[in-house]
Amino acid sequence: MLKDRTIMAVLAAKDINRAKDFYRDKLGLEPSESMEDDSLLYSGGNGTGFLIYQTENAGTAKNTQMGWETDNLEAEMEELRGRGVVFEDYDFPGLKTENGVADNDWGRSAWFLDSEGNILNISQRK
Protein backbone atom coordinates (compact mmCIF):
# COMPACT_ATOMS: atom_id res chain seq x y z
CA MET A 1 0.00 0.00 0.00
CA LEU A 2 1.39 3.41 0.95
CA LYS A 3 4.85 2.12 1.85
CA ASP A 4 5.50 1.46 -1.85
CA ARG A 5 4.10 4.74 -3.16
CA THR A 6 5.99 7.88 -4.15
CA ILE A 7 5.87 10.58 -1.48
CA MET A 8 5.26 14.21 -2.36
CA ALA A 9 5.60 17.15 0.02
CA VAL A 10 2.99 19.92 -0.12
CA LEU A 11 3.85 23.55 0.66
CA ALA A 12 1.64 26.60 0.95
CA ALA A 13 2.20 29.96 -0.77
CA LYS A 14 0.35 33.23 -0.25
CA ASP A 15 1.65 34.40 -3.64
CA ILE A 16 2.29 31.57 -6.12
CA ASN A 17 4.21 33.82 -8.52
CA ARG A 18 6.51 35.08 -5.76
CA ALA A 19 7.11 31.46 -4.71
CA LYS A 20 7.85 30.44 -8.30
CA ASP A 21 10.41 33.25 -8.57
CA PHE A 22 12.04 32.21 -5.26
CA TYR A 23 12.36 28.55 -6.21
CA ARG A 24 13.76 29.48 -9.62
CA ASP A 25 16.09 32.32 -8.62
CA LYS A 26 17.25 31.15 -5.18
CA LEU A 27 17.11 27.36 -5.45
CA GLY A 28 17.57 26.88 -9.21
CA LEU A 29 14.36 24.86 -9.58
CA GLU A 30 11.78 25.00 -12.34
CA PRO A 31 8.29 23.51 -12.02
CA SER A 32 7.84 20.28 -13.94
CA GLU A 33 4.19 21.14 -14.48
CA SER A 34 1.40 23.43 -13.42
CA MET A 35 -1.55 21.52 -12.05
CA GLU A 36 -3.90 24.52 -11.88
CA ASP A 37 -3.49 28.31 -12.08
CA ASP A 38 -2.57 28.49 -8.40
CA SER A 39 -0.33 25.44 -7.95
CA LEU A 40 3.06 24.24 -9.18
CA LEU A 41 4.60 20.77 -9.16
CA TYR A 42 8.38 20.30 -8.84
CA SER A 43 10.21 17.03 -9.51
CA GLY A 44 13.20 15.91 -7.46
CA GLY A 45 15.52 12.94 -7.42
CA ASN A 46 14.44 9.32 -7.12
CA GLY A 47 10.79 9.96 -7.99
CA THR A 48 10.30 12.57 -5.28
CA GLY A 49 8.68 15.94 -5.69
CA PHE A 50 6.71 18.71 -4.07
CA LEU A 51 3.64 20.74 -4.78
CA ILE A 52 3.23 24.42 -3.97
CA TYR A 53 -0.33 25.74 -3.87
CA GLN A 54 -1.72 29.18 -3.14
CA THR A 55 -3.53 29.73 0.17
CA GLU A 56 -3.80 32.42 2.81
CA ASN A 57 -2.54 29.89 5.40
CA ALA A 58 1.03 30.00 4.07
CA GLY A 59 3.85 30.70 6.48
CA THR A 60 1.93 29.78 9.63
CA ALA A 61 3.71 26.49 10.44
CA LYS A 62 6.55 26.74 12.96
CA ASN A 63 8.24 23.48 11.97
CA THR A 64 10.36 22.16 9.13
CA GLN A 65 8.06 21.43 6.23
CA MET A 66 10.43 19.96 3.65
CA GLY A 67 14.06 19.02 3.32
CA TRP A 68 16.72 17.76 0.98
CA GLU A 69 19.46 15.27 1.79
CA THR A 70 22.91 16.00 0.36
CA ASP A 71 26.35 14.47 0.46
CA ASN A 72 28.08 17.88 0.72
CA LEU A 73 26.30 20.31 3.02
CA GLU A 74 29.00 22.99 2.82
CA ALA A 75 28.94 23.11 -0.99
CA GLU A 76 25.14 23.30 -1.08
CA MET A 77 25.10 26.08 1.50
CA GLU A 78 27.80 28.03 -0.33
CA GLU A 79 25.88 27.84 -3.60
CA LEU A 80 22.60 28.81 -1.95
CA ARG A 81 24.20 31.71 -0.07
CA GLY A 82 25.59 32.87 -3.42
CA ARG A 83 22.01 32.98 -4.69
CA GLY A 84 20.89 35.05 -1.70
CA VAL A 85 19.53 32.34 0.61
CA VAL A 86 19.90 33.23 4.30
CA PHE A 87 20.30 30.37 6.76
CA GLU A 88 18.57 30.49 10.12
CA ASP A 89 20.36 30.31 13.46
CA TYR A 90 18.68 28.53 16.37
CA ASP A 91 19.57 28.25 20.04
CA PHE A 92 17.06 26.34 22.11
CA PRO A 93 17.06 23.02 23.99
CA GLY A 94 17.95 20.23 21.60
CA LEU A 95 19.03 22.47 18.72
CA LYS A 96 21.87 24.94 18.43
CA THR A 97 23.35 26.11 15.15
CA GLU A 98 26.73 27.64 14.44
CA ASN A 99 27.01 29.60 11.19
CA GLY A 100 23.63 28.12 10.25
CA VAL A 101 24.59 24.47 10.88
CA ALA A 102 23.44 22.09 13.61
CA ASP A 103 25.52 19.01 14.33
CA ASN A 104 24.13 15.90 16.03
CA ASP A 105 24.60 12.13 16.12
CA TRP A 106 22.61 11.70 12.89
CA GLY A 107 24.47 14.30 10.85
CA ARG A 108 24.54 17.99 10.05
CA SER A 109 21.58 20.19 9.09
CA ALA A 110 20.80 23.76 8.06
CA TRP A 111 17.46 25.59 7.74
CA PHE A 112 16.20 28.52 5.67
CA LEU A 113 12.88 30.16 4.85
CA ASP A 114 11.34 30.35 1.42
CA SER A 115 9.55 33.46 0.16
CA GLU A 116 6.32 32.29 1.81
CA GLY A 117 7.71 31.64 5.29
CA ASN A 118 7.96 27.85 4.89
CA ILE A 119 10.87 26.36 6.85
CA LEU A 120 13.09 24.27 4.57
CA ASN A 121 16.09 22.11 5.46
CA ILE A 122 19.23 20.62 3.99
CA SER A 123 20.90 17.69 5.77
CA GLN A 124 23.95 15.50 5.41
CA ARG A 125 24.16 12.15 7.16
CA LYS A 126 27.37 11.19 8.96
From TrEMBL:
Pfam families per record: Glyoxalase
SUPFAM superfamilies for this protein:
Glyoxalase/Bleomycin resistance protein/Dihydroxybiphenyl dioxygenase
Q: Which residues form the VOC domain?
A: 5-125
> Which InterPro entries does this entry report, sorted A to Z?
Glyas_Bleomycin-R_OHBP_Dase (IPR029068), Glyas_Fos-R_dOase_dom (IPR004360), VOC_core (IPR037523)
Name of this protein: Glyoxalase
Look up and give the organism this protein is from: Pseudarthrobacter sulfonivorans
